[in-house]
Design a protein that fits this description.
7-stranded antiparallel beta sheet, 5-stranded mixed beta sheet, alpha+beta, disordered N terminus, Helix Hairpins, Beta-Lactamase, extended, Heat Shock Protein 90
């Protein structure tokens, strides 16, 4: 019996010791956590008191970041900000007004500096040195501020192109739709006139075709940009080039143009769907013929270079102004507003070509020729057996 009591007392003591030991461990961990939190708080407070310690962190950001004082002077800036505002780091601190001059913007900027500390304040966009920046001002510590400028240049340009495109598209759709409506109503009154009926039918068919081309191009571009690339797709380019050239013979004859083909005899295939390759060649050749002078010559050369197929189309037209060459493949971009009739007038033709070529891991290059003309080169990967 006594032995049982001794065992029970020992068990209770062991349990008590275990819980005491565990409580001590928990208390020790708690003290360590409290100490760590105090250290983190001290570091944060030190950073607020010494905002310059944050500069190394800002240097790793891709967006433009400037550290300012309460008077709007730039104390430090990361690489993106130095580039966007054309700032010389050796000459800091300097007033922000030295790098960006806009009285209306600075009126709101001064109000934001004087506002009570709180959430980040949005400021009007900054347009400077080809950049469009969306700035946000936040207070770091008393008398120190952070100006974060998000680069929205691409979005701004795309939005501008989108608005211009929609404006042009609505205008160009309104013209054929007005013709369709006008001739449809006229047929009700003059439908018995065989000559007028024939004219109306032809106009209605042409305008409906024009509308259909625009909508088809928009749908096609959307499909190309979002479809999955088919790595198994392949086609023989030489027969397709000959087919497209045959189809364009009437266009050549109409303006007395010569279309010369220089196609290497090679049975290899390229990693691209036949329909996509047909559309690429048709678009580039049609553009070359359309902008070539009457009686001129357009040359298409197809050659093989190691693991690639190269198609080069050259014309003797006016070419493209050098400042527009980097942008002619952008969606909705147009070089000449006067050339607004048809799909190519809306900047969709070359955008589709580029999307198709890049979806096949290819490359499209456009260069002006001397003394005049345009050279379009398409490089596509060859099919590996």
């Amino acid at each position: 019996m006594n032995m049982l009591w001794l065992l029970l007392i020992a068990a209770v003591a062991a349990v008590a010791f275990f819980f005491a030991w565990r409580s001590q461990r928990c208390a020790q961990r708690y003290r360590q956590r409290v100490t760590a939190l105090k250290d983190e708080l001290a570091a944060l407070q030190a950073a607020q008191q010494r905002p310059d310690r944050l500069d190394p962190l800002f240097s790793s950001l891709h967006e433009a970041v400037l550290r300012l004082d309460g008077d709007g002077r730039v104390l430090a800036a990361n690489a993106a900000a130095l580039n966007a505002f054309a700032i010389c780091a050796d000459k800091l601190p300097q007033s922000l007004a030295h790098f960006y001059r806009d009285s209306d913007w600075f009126a709101q900027f001064r109000d934001a500096l004087a506002a009570p500390a709180g959430e980040a304040q949005a400021l009007p966009n900054i347009k400077l040195n080809g950049y469009v920046l969306s700035p946000r001002l936040s207070q770091l510590a008393q008398g120190h501020f952070l100006l974060l400028c998000l680069d929205i240049t691409a979005q701004h340009r795309l939005e501008k192109q989108r608005r211009l495109f929609l404006s042009n598209l609505m205008h160009d759709l309104k013209t054929p739709l007005t013709s369709l409506l006008g001739y449809a109503r006229s047929l009700e009154s003059f439908g018995d006139d065989a000559e007028f009926r024939a004219e109306a039918v032809e106009v209605i068919a042409n305008e409906a075709k024009h509308v259909n081309q625009l909508l088809d191009a928009l749908l096609r571009l959307d499909q190309v940009e979002y479809k999955q690339s088919d790595r198994a797709a392949a086609c023989a380019p030489a027969p397709l080039v000959a087919k497209v050239a045959e189809m364009l013979k009437p266009q050549c004859a109409e303006r007395n143009l010569r279309l010369t083909l220089q196609v290497a005899e090679d049975a290899r295939q390229i990693c691209m769907d036949a329909m996509d390759f047909d559309r690429v060649i048709t678009n580039l050749l049609s553009n070359a013929l359309r902008y070539s002078p009457e009686g001129g010559e357009v040359t298409l050369t197809l050659s093989w270079q190691a693991a690639h197929c190269r198609v080069v189309i050259e014309d003797a037209g006016e070419g493209i102004p050098e400042k527009y060459l980097p942008r002619v493949t952008e969606r909705f971009f147009r070089v000449d507003k006067a050339r607004s009739r048809g799909v190519e007038g809306h900047g969709l033709g070359l955008a589709i070509v580029k999307a198709l070529v890049e979806s096949a891991d290819g490359e499209l290059t456009l260069r002006n020729r001397e003394p005049h003309g345009l050279r379009a080169a398409v490089l596509l990967p060859a099919k590996v057996d």
